[in-house]
Protein 1
Amino acid sequence: MANTELERSVKDFISVRDLSPAELARLLDLSAGLKADRRLRRRAPTADALAGRHVAMLFEKPSLRTRSTFEIATRELGGDTLDVPAQFAEGIREPLQDVARNLERWIDAIVVRTYAQAKVMMIASAAPNLHVINALTDDEHPCQALADMLTLRERLGSLRGRTLAYVGDGNNTATSLAHAAPMLGMSLHVASPAGYELPAHVVEEAMRSARDGALVRLFRDPREAVAGADAVYTDVWASMGEEKEAAARKLVFADYQVNRALMAAAPGSALFMHCLPAHREEEVTAEVFESPASVVFDQAENRLHTEKALLLTLLS
Ligand code: CP
Ligand code: NVA
């Protein structure tokens, strides 16, 4: 019997929740294949998969990894990119819906980094023929979670029954990890100071698509969160758009630094993860960042392979 869940087409990737657990697992399998094929360069079987297709980039916040990897991914799949200046996301020269309705007449997909998640959703609903990819909003960072899950799978094998500990701000990165990890059977422990916890609705959403008994659990004490964890993840204390809060947040998060003492509270085999950019001696010490446990540049590399898989999944 046909599995309709696997056969439906996914138009947009605004949240990890746009994929079912089976679709997420399949996307990671595809990513691993694309990673292996990259050495073939133009002889890779997908080298012309997006020939004649265009993917636009609309970034209202800075980006090194996300923008570079989406541009490289598009080109390595034989497609072309279009830079849409950030000012057009403001909706001042013309409404954002009209920008989207113009773009869908010319191009196939748009990668959007902005502040409000509602803006990405507005583009997606205004343009039914345009594939919209969330390249980070204040709420979610779903493309990061794809690369992180591939990195974990490479290091740990099956994620079923494993635990990821996230220490710090219950932010966009933490939200997308909470959506992704439990879909693959991996529990997520999140340790945050009061007032900076993962939102309750995110925990509920994550638990709805959890598999194999995976849990999302919130902690106050980072040492409790990392006990027994297979990997320890952190992110900046002040995200893009929160720069004015940076000094106050340094005080609030002071006890949430990932350092040698915190890593010692985790199993000796625990990995260290960070989406980057990292602020050494704030959320992580240089010692842990540079330690053999650190897989941060694997995560960065895997942005490319998972985004290629995402583009193929949406556009094929
Ligand atoms: N991790 C990440 O999204 O990096 P950029 O902000 O450089 O894209
Ligand atoms: N939470 C960070 C992630 C950067 C990739 C931010 O939003 O700035």
Protein 2
Amino acid sequence: MGSQQQTILVTGGAGFIGTHTVLQLLNDGFRVSIIDNLHNSVQESILRVKELVGPKLSQNLDFHLGDLRNKDDLEKLFSKTKFDAVIHFAGLKAVGESVEHPIRYYDNNLIGSINLYQTMAKYNCKKLVFSSSSTVYGQPEKIPCVEDFHLNAMNPYGRTKLFLEEIARDIYAADNDWKIILLRYFNPVGAHESGKLGEDPKGIPNNLMPYIQQVAVGRLPELNVYGYDYPTPDGSAIRDYIHVMDLADGHIAALCKLLNADDDDVMGCVAYNLGTGRGTSVLEMVAAFEKASGKKIPIKLCPRRPGDATEVYASTKKAEKELEWKAKYGIEEMCRDQWKWASQNPWGYQSKPLKDI
Ligand code: NAD
Ligand code: UFG
């Protein structure tokens, strides 16, 4: 698909979604540069990507330790390499942390992105795929969520995504040479089928699947199920979980749309949902993971988590029609691959912490 001439900058490429996307980009023949400050990732993930693609394609990947808040780091990269497009993952993403430390989120996510866009404009690289989130729908009034719904973020993290969407729309409005795709991910889970790449959160996980995974390998004793009195069939909340490899392929589809457009094509700044369009409850997810892993996941029924919506899932029509992309995997495959990653790497990319040996 990609050609040797096409070089893609992937910010945050050492992280969870970034590594899986970089792998697919390399497999599709693109050259890839990563910039990451390793704030929430480790370099071992890049070594795993190289191992998976083999020695030949590995030569098409280079890694730069750098921070988007530091313009010199970006300047060094752009002055040496001509990028055909940028996939921008780098950002902080923990909702709770963003409530406690809003300035940290506005600084990292907004300043980092503004530096990136200024440098892109300077070097005339105006094709961008941006990681947005279903968080921009807030508490959706209706489901499924459709891209033209009114947007409403509920916390500082969500507001950074909402502001960055608005900034992207303004950049395009001021200069129609830009071609921008905003991808609103629903709940990314799962791992590469090899079990060599996966999500490796630092500290106690905030999100459901990494938490279940850590219970399954014995790192945590039980799962707190937040809410059992929702108006849903089993009382637990419903989300649209999407396999990270489907998400990676969604990025390739978006990128190809940008790269295949003629210079004078007016593409605009367009948002797409990346989800499966299917809702699954917390208790259904627990049961699916137990089935895939053969492990019992002890649960504790707890009060609702403040700010959580009852039921969220995507309308997938726009991405299917305009990106020609559709998620392939269901929750069985998500749990199967997540368990493979967890069972082969119970402590993530690092070996077991010394204090626990
Ligand atoms: P992640 O934390 O695994 O990856 C993000 C990467 O960006 C990390 O490797 C981190 O070290 C790097 N980074 C952060 N700030 C940086 C900076 N200033 N300079 C350079 N590198 C920096 O997260 P992820 O799950 O892979 O998410 C990727 C993107 O997708 C994020 O923007 C996130 O907000 C968005 N997103 C994630 C989810 C999800 O549930 N995982 C859902 C919706 C949207
Ligand atoms: N949940 C539990 N126990 C846990 C963790 C989560 O019961 O230990 C429940 C939550 O209450 C929710 C569901 O599992 O009902 C999913 O929770 P996650 O934290 O995994 O995901 P959310 O849908 O709450 O939201 C996350 C981010 C949002 C982002 C969204 C989609 O927090 O910012 O994923 O990407 F928009």
